[in-house]
């Protein structure tokens, strides 16, 4: 159970996620677990994760808020637009960014490319615990970087790294990877969660007081979570993940971002000269086909952050082998799929309750917007009846349980994006910019499937 008293020199740490804060609470404000905050003594305070910057250091004084320097304008622009946007418009100085991804995805490449922009502002330090200086040099050569401005330190020993940081005072620091950093202060075994936490925390504490940025590279485990789990994520300001889809397109997104949204998607391709942005990615997630569309597919313009992408939803229905039917859908929440199928069954009379339903999204993106309802309904209807959706048709709209088509946010840019890509028929909740208005699911089915409709 937890300690209850409050005193000036103690702190409370969550036993589950290590989040630390000055008062006892019944519930951890970070991971949400109940009754996990425990008092930790003031002697160990300096070694605590910095839940709040500067927390745990003695001698802090309050200052008027008006005297605090605003952090606006204190970003480094990395010069890689896809990267800058994911970070919220460049990387905030004094911040620490954890970047996770499987080996070979391009973490080292991306950061070395970003270092190129930073080196005009000051010294760049690349700490490598995995690759030799020669390997880093050959990567820099391949990327045509001016390698004389980037300094390399090949070590995993924390004390060597912090000493170099203090001597060199770099503005841009890459630690590749954090899993190779160790300190005798955290025990004899390298690679433990303790090592990871202590070393990260030391490095993060360093960057908090400098006009510098710190990137910590982390390998991901098989299940996709950053190894050394939640504990590390609290220490840093931003957590980025780098992933790839079946077509080897690489996606950079923020899982946590203290200084920006987590909705932006950075899209890259690995080429002979490094990672390059995909030019005009709007059409990346639609499938180009010659001839008629197969049944079960429908296209919707969705927002990923500030950009619109046209995305193809694919559905398949088969008679269930058992009395219990199932929905198999990784990219769209299964409960949304079940709900749309139920609306179709009730309002249009098309039976889904004896069917197993499979739903996929081309390109492997996850769709969470309610604006996908209409396209999902069309894909399901089409899959169940084997009647294809007419070609060059895009669908936008939320569907209520009553079968009404509800308005969606930012309709106009969606319509424009679809029209630009040659979708000549756009069905939407309102007749905006050439879109055709539809008001309910029956009308949608009539418009799309016309005389050939069933039910
Ligand atoms: P890398 O950045 O080393 O990935 P990570 O640090 O995430 O493990 O690069 C990944 C792969 O990309 C590597 O196998 C070699 C390849 N590559 C290119 O094809 N072109 C290039 O210009 C570079 C630098 C790497
Ligand atoms: Mg690497």
Outline the structure in words.
- With 455 residues, the chain is an alpha/beta fold.
- It has three domains: 10-46; 74-277, P-loop containing nucleotide triphosphate hydrolases (Rossmann fold, 3-Layer(aba) Sandwich); 297-452, Ribosomal Protein S5, domain 2.
- Helix content is 24%, strand content 25%.
- The longest helix is centred in the middle third of the chain and has 16 residues, at 193-208.
- Mean pLDDT is 86; it is low at 1-8 and 42-56.
- The structure holds thymidine-5'-diphosphate and magnesium ion.
- The site of thymidine-5'-diphosphate (TYD) has 15 residues, from α2 and α3.
- Residues 101, 103-109, 139, 142-143, 270, 272-274 line the site of thymidine-5'-diphosphate (TYD).
- What small molecules does this complex bind? thymidine-5'-diphosphate, magnesium ion
Rg from C-alpha positions?
Answer: 26 Å
Global morphology:
elongated
Helix content: 10-25%
* Oligomeric nature of the chains: single chain
The number of helical segments is 10
**How far apart, in Å, are the first and last alpha carbons?**
60 Å
Mind telling me the CATH superfamily name of the largest domain?
P-loop containing nucleotide triphosphate hydrolases
Q: Return the CATH class of the largest domain.
A: Alpha Beta
């Amino acid at each position: 159970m937890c300690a209850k008293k409050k005193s000036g020199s103690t702190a409370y740490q969550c036993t589950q996620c290590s989040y630390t804060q000055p008062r006892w609470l019944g519930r951890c404000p970070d991971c949400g677990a109940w009754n996990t905050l425990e008092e930790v003594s003031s002697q160990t305070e300096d070694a605590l994760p910095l839940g709040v910057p500067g927390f745990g250091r003695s001698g802090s004084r309050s200052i008027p808020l008006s005297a605090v320097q605003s952090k606006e304008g204190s970003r480094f622009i990395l010069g890689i637009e896809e990267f800058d946007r994911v970070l919220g418009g460049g990387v905030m100085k004094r911040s620490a960014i954890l970047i996770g991804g499987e080996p070979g995805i391009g973490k080292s490449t991306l950061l070395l490319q970003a270092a190129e922009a930073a080196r005009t502002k000051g010294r760049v330090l690349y700490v490598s615990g995995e690759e030799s200086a020669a390997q880093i040099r050959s990567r820099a050569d391949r990327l045509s970087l001016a390698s004389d401005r980037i300094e390399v330190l090949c070590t995993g020993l924390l004390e060597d790294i912090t000493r170099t940081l203090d001597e060199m005072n770099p503005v841009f620091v890459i630690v590749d990877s954090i899993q190779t950093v160790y300190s005798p202060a955290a025990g004899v075994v390298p690679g433990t969660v303790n090592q990871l936490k202590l070393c990260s925390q030391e490095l993060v504490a360093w960057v908090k007081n400098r006009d510098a940025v710190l990137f910590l590279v982390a390998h991901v485990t098989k299940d996709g979570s950053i190894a050394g789990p939640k504990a590390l994520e609290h220490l840093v300001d931003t957590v980025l993940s780098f992933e790839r889809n079946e077509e080897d397109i690489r996606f950079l997104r923020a899982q946590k971002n203290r200084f920006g949204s987590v909705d932006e998607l950075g899209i890259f391709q690995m080429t002979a000269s490094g990672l390059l942005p995909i030019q005009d990615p709007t059409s990346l997630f639609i499938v180009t086909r010659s001839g008629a569309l197969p049944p079960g597919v429908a296209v919707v313009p969705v927002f990923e952050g500030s950009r619109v992408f046209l995305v193809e939803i694919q559905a398949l229905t088969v008679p269930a082998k058992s009395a219990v039917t199932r929905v198999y859908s990784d990219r769209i929440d299964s409960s949304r799929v079940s709900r749309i199928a139920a609306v179709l069954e009730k309002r249009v009379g098309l039976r889904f309750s004896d069917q197993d339903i499979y739903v996929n999204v081309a390109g492997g993106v996850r769709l969470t917007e309610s604006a996908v309802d209409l396209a999902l309904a069309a894909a399901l209807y089409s899959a169940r009846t084997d009647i294809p959706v007419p070609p060059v048709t895009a669908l936008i709209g939320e569907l209520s349980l009553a079968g009404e088509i509800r308005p969606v946010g930012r309709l106009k840019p969606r319509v424009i994006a679809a029209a630009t890509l040659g979708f000549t028929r756009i069905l939407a909740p309102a007749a905006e910019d050439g879109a055709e208005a539809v008001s309910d699911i029956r009308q949608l089915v009539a418009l799309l499937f016309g005389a050939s409709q069933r039910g």
